[in-house]
Specification:
Elements lengths: L4 H38 L3 H7 L5 E7 L2 E6 L6 E2 L4 H8 L3 E6 L4 E9 L6 H7 L1 H4 L7 E10 L5 E10 H13 L7 E4 L29 H33 L1 H32 L5 H11 L4 E9 L2 E8 L3 H8 L4 E6 L4 E2 L6 E9 L10
Parallel strand pairs: 1-4, 4-8
Antiparallel strand pairs: 1-2, 2-3, 5-7, 6-7, 9-10, 10-13, 11-13, 12-13
Length: 374
């Protein structure tokens, strides 16, 4: 059977699409672990969080009338930043530098989300960028924060800011080359806030300057505790072995009791390892709701809007509008992530938009060695 050039191009595009989806899934797992860490930290009493919170000073840098001015935290005065690496760094001192974009340079949008979606607010808002803004996801840096969260309310208010990548990257280069200053954040000016900032950070984590931790930072205290616990565990294990040897010389029953205790400890460790493997399998399950939702959003072409999304593993039922619904089946079935796709009802024309309204069932393929009902 012959293969055309178009067929080769399609295969290459499919492989590239799968790699992008896998990279996105890996990034989401990392974000979930960061969120989980922050949620656990919130369980600590407020006085402990204040005790270990970083107190690094912050200075804001903003362009005013063609000059860069610096404003130190807690000081109402402003100073002009000279375009000389030594002088600029001296003016900032030990403070972290945060560049403030003008309000017109950032697109901001707010949306009500279910409270249960708090952990995935960043991902949900990011997925809607191509359909609800004039930008593609690779054209902007985005940051999302929850600004209204009532413990008794069923919804939260998510605030997202979008800054063009070319603008932010240009600022980073200029600050480093001309002023010798590396930024720890890029925010947007907000005259309505107490510190004049909106509270975003458009810099990717890998481009930020790490904050200087104090002598008694929480990370260092935890490290000391873990090292101490490891040393104590090693000493306790060594002591236990010595006691077992001495007991075996004295009496066989005592040695057997010590062996049973050791087996119990090993069984607990094995049970803990099994639990860790179960959590890892759950996080890497390609058919869990979040992964399927994001994969569906990535596969649907431009000009398609979803009105309903229902998932009963491994089948997704979607209802929405499309400029060309006939092409959806071919697009979806071309992906190795999809086992089959079919319309669940006749396609009709929406009287208000003129688009085609469809209802479709998509069956996702299970991973190798994994049953659909798992």
């Amino acid at each position: 059977m012959s293969t055309s050039a178009d067929g080769d191009s399609k295969t290459t595009g499919t492989i590239a699409g799968q790699s992008a989806v896998r990279a996105e899934l890996t990034a989401n797992i990392g974000e979930f672990l960061v969120w989980w860490r922050d949620e656990l930290a919130q369980l600590a009493p407020s006085w402990i969080r204040r005790l270990f919170s970083r107190q690094d000073p912050v200075s804001t840098v903003q362009e005013v009338d063609g000059c860069l001015v610096v404003k130190h935290q807690g000081d109402t005065r402003t100073h002009v930043l000279e375009p000389a690496p030594g002088a600029a760094r001296s003016r900032l001192g030990a403070a972290q530098a945060v560049y403030l974009l003008p309000e017109e340079a950032v697109l901001r949008r707010r949306k009500q989300l279910p409270r249960a979606a708090r952990a995935q607010a960043r991902n949900i808002m990011a997925l809607q960028i191509p359909s609800e803004t004039p930008f593609a996801m690779d054209e902007v840096y985005a940051d999302t924060r929850v600004i209204d969260e009532d413990g008794a309310a069923s919804e939260i208010l998510a605030d997202q800011g979008l800054a063009q990548r070319a603008t932010v990257d240009g600022i980073l280069t200029r600050m480093d080359d001309v002023y010798g200053v590396r930024l720890s954040g890029v925010d947007v000016a907000d005259t309505g806030s107490a510190d004049g900032r909106a509270g975003f950070n458009f810099l990717p984590v890998e481009k930020r300057v790490a904050a200087q931790a104090g002598r008694f930072s929480l990370n260092r205290v935890l490290l000391i505790v873990l090292v101490g616990a490891a040393m104590f565990a090693g000493w306790a294990w060594r002591d236990l072995q010595d006691r077992q040897i001495a007991a075996s010389e004295a009496a066989l029953p005592a040695a057997e009791a010590g062996a049973e205790e050791a087996l119990r400890v090993i069984k607990q460790i094995s049970s803990g390892a099994d639990a860790i493997q179960s959590v890892d399998a759950l996080l890497n399950d390609p058919l869990r709701f979040q992964q399927v939702y994001e994969a569906t959003a990535a596969l649907l072409p431009d000009g398609t809007w979803l009105e309903e999304f229902v998932y009963a593993r491994p089948v997704v039922t979607i209802t929405g509008l499309s400029a060309n619904s006939a092409a959806l089946i071919e697009i979806l079935e071309a992906s190795d992530l999809v086992a089959s796709a079919k319309f669940a009802s006749p396609v009709v024309t929406d009287s208000q938009t003129g688009a085609e309204r469809f209802r479709m069932e998509i069956t996702f393929a299970a991973a190798a060695g994994q049953e659909e009902g798992e």
